[in-house]
Amino acid sequence: MYCGYCGRLLRRCVCHEPGSDLARFMARAVREAKPRQRSEPYKRAVPPQIKRRERATLRARHERWHQKLSDDFGEGCANCGATESLVLDHIIPIAKGGRSMLDNLQLLCAECNRLKGKLVIDCRDFTSARRVTGDND
Which carries the bigger pLDDT value, residue 45 or residue 15? Predict the structure, then answer.
């Protein structure tokens, strides 16, 4: 079995240890990381031409997608709620086979994006729940 966040074999995964990237990322939103498993690893060794194509697609549609995500999920980081220095983040990173499509993007602040790195974490559900319940910190 594989970790649902980093894609490593569970016996080699360090995501749930204190001080891990996942723990620091989740601490910014004051929520707990729940163990997730996958039956197969994420795609590895994405060719450079595909990475270039995906990044070019993102650059070409950046403004429109940023506005759409802001309208749907609010103008704030999907993880911690910060409203400054927001960036588009791939939920499944390009390096793990993720595509530059609207359903694979979320708004994160620069710090949360740096902490998330190549982890696969979808914060949009958390953002939607926070908006519905009115729990805006």
Answer: 15
In which element (H, E) is residue 73 found? helix 48-73
The 10 Å Cβ neighbour count of residue 122 is: 12
DSSP 26: H
CA distance 32 to 16: 10
Percent of the chain with pLDDT over 70: 91
* pTM (2 d.p.): 0.84
* CATH number of residue 121's parent domain: 1.10.30.50
Q: How many CB atoms lie within 10 A of CB 79?
A: 25
| Pairing status of strand 86-90 against strand 105-109 | antiparallel
Domain count along the chain: 1
The 10 Å Cβ neighbour count of residue 131 is 14
For residues 54 and 104, what is the distance between their CA atoms, to the nearest angstrom?
A: 12
